[in-house]
């Protein structure tokens, strides 16, 4: 594992240069400049965008501010997906910086206008309904994120689910509450050493086993209906040899790989173990060949 | 090992999975505990269903746990959870009005 420390650091410190712009229909008192930020691939949008919020709130009235959400070319961005995954899924083929649109204005002006022109009450409520549906929070696509606690709960649930697969939850359950907290604080404060002091225990297995019980992985594809592929997959084949990433892909989404790609990914046997890093799952963006 | 086509066929032939719902603490117990749930039903969809069945208010919270250890994301599909955490042909889910396992 110490040999892989360079790789662990590269994954942890991966950044995506991003440009945030306010949704153009959200009329403000003065125009807001775009805001530039380097986003950590391993983190979550709502965890790392406090500065973005503060920047755009400067041009808005306090009563107009509602829950912030982000969109890329019309697609609402799921904050509960790691940032790196969102980028790979939606924008990996476009030029940097990644351009994200920010939404957070409550729709109040039109209601004021209608009320002042003595509009029929029924008409007001119908129009209001349509406006709220189109301009406000996309309930069908996004989870709400009212506080950092929600992000922490989601992150810890992912860690726990991964450990349920790796160790039947034994390692995560043996840890104290303060260890769980340290994982979260490490992520929140971008502290590699603090995070890995605990996470390395989640990456170990007894010497008599040759790996985890099952590999926690999710495969996301931009081109399919289902959100992701997640199945049980053992790190050791029946003959005793270690499975590679290529074996995993061949098994769970064979249509996504060409034979040439397969040869390249049939690398070092414990490659598959060494990629289980800051995110509990291997996230792999398979593009249709 | 199932290929993409195999899985699609599997989903068509067996679109639902057996789910066993267990109450935690003093959460009301459902009269019917075993349900056939569509694979693509999300946890949120299941929560809404349980709330309706138990006549809970929409504003009341309901937490769902897998393996008595983690709360899956509301958008997670029951079919995926069944594949990974099901045993003896069913997925056991615990539900609670308060947070039970963090």
From TrEMBL, chain A:
<keyword id="KW-0472">Membrane</keyword>
<protein>
    <recommendedName>
        <fullName>Autophagy protein 5</fullName>
    </recommendedName>
</protein>
<feature type="domain" description="Autophagy protein ATG5 alpha-helical bundle region">
    <location>
        <begin position="149"/>
        <end position="204"/>
    </location>
</feature>
<dbReference type="InterPro" id="IPR007239">
    <property type="entry name" value="Atg5"/>
</dbReference>
<dbReference type="GO" id="GO:0000422">
    <property type="term" value="P:autophagy of mitochondrion"/>
</dbReference>
<feature type="domain" description="Autophagy protein ATG5 UblA">
    <location>
        <begin position="11"/>
        <end position="104"/>
    </location>
</feature>
<dbReference type="GO" id="GO:0034727">
    <property type="term" value="P:piecemeal microautophagy of the nucleus"/>
</dbReference>
<dbReference type="GO" id="GO:0034274">
    <property type="term" value="C:Atg12-Atg5-Atg16 complex"/>
</dbReference>
<dbReference type="GO" id="GO:0006995">
    <property type="term" value="P:cellular response to nitrogen starvation"/>
</dbReference>
<dbReference type="Pfam" id="PF04106">
    <property type="entry name" value="ATG5_UblB"/>
</dbReference>
<dbReference type="GO" id="GO:0061908">
    <property type="term" value="C:phagophore"/>
</dbReference>
<keyword id="KW-1017">Isopeptide bond</keyword>
<comment type="subunit">
    <text>Forms a conjugate with ATG12. Part of the minor complex composed of 4 sets of ATG12-ATG5 and ATG16L1 (400 kDa); this complex interacts with ATG3 leading to disruption of ATG7 interaction and promotion of ATG8-like proteins lipidation. Forms an 800-kDa complex composed of ATG12-ATG5 and ATG16L2. The ATG12-ATG5 conjugate interacts with RAB33A; this interaction is bridged by ATG16L1 and promotes ATG12-ATG5-ATG16L1 complex recruitment to phagophores. Interacts with TECPR1; the interaction is direct and does not take place when ATG16L1 is associated with the ATG5-ATG12 conjugate.</text>
</comment>
<dbReference type="GO" id="GO:0034045">
    <property type="term" value="C:phagophore assembly site membrane"/>
</dbReference>
<dbReference type="InterPro" id="IPR042527">
    <property type="entry name" value="Atg5_UblA_dom_sf"/>
</dbReference>
<comment type="function">
    <text>May play an important role in the apoptotic process, possibly within the modified cytoskeleton. Its expression is a relatively late event in the apoptotic process, occurring downstream of caspase activity. Plays a crucial role in IFN-gamma-induced autophagic cell death by interacting with FADD.</text>
</comment>
<dbReference type="GO" id="GO:0007033">
    <property type="term" value="P:vacuole organization"/>
</dbReference>
<dbReference type="GO" id="GO:0019776">
    <property type="term" value="F:Atg8-family ligase activity"/>
</dbReference>
<dbReference type="InterPro" id="IPR048318">
    <property type="entry name" value="ATG5_UblB"/>
</dbReference>
<comment type="subunit">
    <text>Conjugated with ATG12.</text>
</comment>
<dbReference type="Pfam" id="PF20638">
    <property type="entry name" value="ATG5_UblA"/>
</dbReference>
<keyword id="KW-0072">Autophagy</keyword>
UniProtKB/TrEMBL annotation, chain B:
<comment type="subunit">
    <text>Forms a conjugate with ATG5.</text>
</comment>
<keyword id="KW-0472">Membrane</keyword>
<dbReference type="GO" id="GO:0061723">
    <property type="term" value="P:glycophagy"/>
</dbReference>
<dbReference type="GO" id="GO:0034727">
    <property type="term" value="P:piecemeal microautophagy of the nucleus"/>
</dbReference>
<comment type="function">
    <text>Ubiquitin-like protein involved in autophagic vesicle formation.</text>
</comment>
<dbReference type="GO" id="GO:0097352">
    <property type="term" value="P:autophagosome maturation"/>
</dbReference>
<protein>
    <recommendedName>
        <fullName>Ubiquitin-like protein ATG12</fullName>
    </recommendedName>
</protein>
<dbReference type="InterPro" id="IPR007242">
    <property type="entry name" value="Atg12"/>
</dbReference>
<dbReference type="GO" id="GO:0034274">
    <property type="term" value="C:Atg12-Atg5-Atg16 complex"/>
</dbReference>
<comment type="similarity">
    <text>Belongs to the ATG12 family.</text>
</comment>
<keyword id="KW-1017">Isopeptide bond</keyword>
<dbReference type="GO" id="GO:0000045">
    <property type="term" value="P:autophagosome assembly"/>
</dbReference>
<dbReference type="GO" id="GO:0000421">
    <property type="term" value="C:autophagosome membrane"/>
</dbReference>
<dbReference type="GO" id="GO:0034045">
    <property type="term" value="C:phagophore assembly site membrane"/>
</dbReference>
<dbReference type="InterPro" id="IPR029071">
    <property type="entry name" value="Ubiquitin-like_domsf"/>
</dbReference>
<dbReference type="Pfam" id="PF04110">
    <property type="entry name" value="APG12"/>
</dbReference>
<dbReference type="GO" id="GO:0019776">
    <property type="term" value="F:Atg8-family ligase activity"/>
</dbReference>
<dbReference type="GO" id="GO:0000422">
    <property type="term" value="P:autophagy of mitochondrion"/>
</dbReference>
<keyword id="KW-0833">Ubl conjugation pathway</keyword>
<keyword id="KW-0072">Autophagy</keyword>
<keyword id="KW-0963">Cytoplasm</keyword>
<keyword id="KW-0007">Acetylation</keyword>
